[in-house]
Amino acid sequence: MAFAAPLPLRCGAVLRDYTLVYETYGTLNADRSNAVLVCHALNASHHVAGIYEGDAKSVGWWDNLIGPGQPLDTDRFFVIGVNNPGSCFGSTGPTHINPATQQPWGADFPVVTVEDWVDAQARLCDALGIAQLAAVIGGSLGGMQALCWATRYPQRLRHCIAIATAPNLSAQNIAFNEVARRAIVTDPDFHDGHYLACGTVPKRGLRVARMIGHITYLSDDTMDAKFGRNLRAAIGAAASLPSDAPRYTTLDIEFEIESYLRHQGDKFSEYFDANSYLLITRVLDYFDPAREHGGDLSAAFAAASAKFQLISFTTDWRFSPARSREIVKALLDNRLDVSYAEIAAPHGHDAFLLDDARYHGVLRARFERIAREMGGPGA
Amino acid sequence: MAFAAPLPLRCGAVLRDYTLVYETYGTLNADRSNAVLVCHALNASHHVAGIYEGDAKSVGWWDNLIGPGQPLDTDRFFVIGVNNPGSCFGSTGPTHINPATQQPWGADFPVVTVEDWVDAQARLCDALGIAQLAAVIGGSLGGMQALCWATRYPQRLRHCIAIATAPNLSAQNIAFNEVARRAIVTDPDFHDGHYLACGTVPKRGLRVARMIGHITYLSDDTMDAKFGRNLRAAIGAAASLPSDAPRYTTLDIEFEIESYLRHQGDKFSEYFDANSYLLITRVLDYFDPAREHGGDLSAAFAAASAKFQLISFTTDWRFSPARSREIVKALLDNRLDVSYAEIAAPHGHDAFLLDDARYHGVLRARFERIAREMGGPGA
Questions:
Q1: What ipTM was reported for this prediction?
Q2: A220 close to B (CB below 8 A)
């Protein structure tokens, strides 16, 4: 959907003539009360569920949660997935043409924030004729968007579901983002962010950035259970060695975890845009609703009126349960309707993307409650 | 000290005509019973205490622990600091000339291990006429060397002091090392490890590697206390902005933690050799005394006879207290003399380098015991 009205951004710039790519699932009901907005995190997109015809691998990133009969049941709800501006999956972003220069935006794409994304999403809802969402849901950075909706457009959502998220990034979180950014920016193929105009892609930096990110998405325990200290089975010339004999190499792969991480980095560097990575890690860094309230998170939620579901995972060390509890406390300080589930799951931050019975049970119950509250024949 | 006898390495190679740089402090007593070997970690050296004449900044890395009247009292003990082969502070390493090619070793320097280092240290002790050390002490990778002494040369040390260490690296530990190595190896200035011959240094990779490492040395809490989400004070053109106003930038420094990490990376890239970084992170990866005992750590310590002091720090998430407790259990399984102190300290892994009263109290008491056991007029 193309938007002609300029979008003013927090950084002071204005985004003109932008496009948002979105997908919808299910049917908007007669009184337009069953819409659920799904917000994506760092490297995901509008494609939240289902597969594209003829492409069996194109599974939506939250397909285990969203669909007919799923916890977020598309037989009952009208689900919207939207790609945020600055990302690289179709909505206006740094790989698109800057109308002012007729060159790709590159590093000149304006810095966007969670607030800007939520404003863009609200305009999309306007265009779809949705005055109030039944719910906004997201995990990680997606959860930050859900929380932002609750403070920025309190009358436009009834439920806010924020999973594996935080009220802001800790110094350590910012530090990991910064190392990833430095890996990208110091790649000689980055060319000050105008690599497309130079016909290059800073793949080396993207690989390292993704490897760093990936470590923080998994729990220590999951890594030990999945890879441990296993050596990678000998291949090629070394196939005659027993598989438990180290090869003693500094440059080649020795341990399975190394092989896995390199593979993750390689895959990511093939499809993700480096400037989008810089922008979206900054979206994370800048999110801090308490900042303009003198650091008082409770004050930040003073205007909120949604009903809240917070969920965290015990082994998530990126956004630990303690960070979710900070949010819960701030919401309770405002006497809001809050449920909080702390799920004992071994998978670390990535747990929010996985199919865990207790986790999905909490979400199924929440959406059944939302459906009941909507009334009507679908309830 | 130059060694003519070749040193056989675990990887199968042999190190010929190698040199070890070492420093000693205090005086070896008449019966040669008061020698303490100090083992260094990833980026340290033989210079463990004191300052070099005319260079006030050249403070030894464990100067707060070692010296006259300090917990490791050089009025009583003869302290030896030695730079390990493969490192870059004077002992034979990848920046030295490979006698076979008359070129710098570069990436052809053989892969070394904790066992090889301990063998080299034992030969140094031979040359110094020290049949038995009063103690071997080290933190982090230094602690691994102390543990290796206890299993490899059980009769040659009376006390083993292993601080903030682990019986092996977890998959997550290896993962962080691997990302750091990839940052170095994929730097175009790396030239397959023969950058010296090409007149370059892979500084970009070294910077990123150091930034990653540094995050894992500090606790989350310390980072929050020291930097939090503080913005770096505006400088230069931006000096007119209030210091709490974000600049909204993806390429420039916004948060104080970013400034700190970049500074750490820059400093490190000026003095540390990239091939040494690869080698020494591999020394860490490969250390695993249980491996040749079918994963049974208790069996690995079956031959040990030293008295052990283990110390860990509550906020160390690189080598957590749980990892030290694994070692303690294995030692107790062998009915060895073991003391274990778990110090409540906020500083993360770096705590082993800092001056904490309870931590240094434990070490002072241990060295007083060692001195008493030595007997003689110094006791």
A1: 0.95
A2: yes
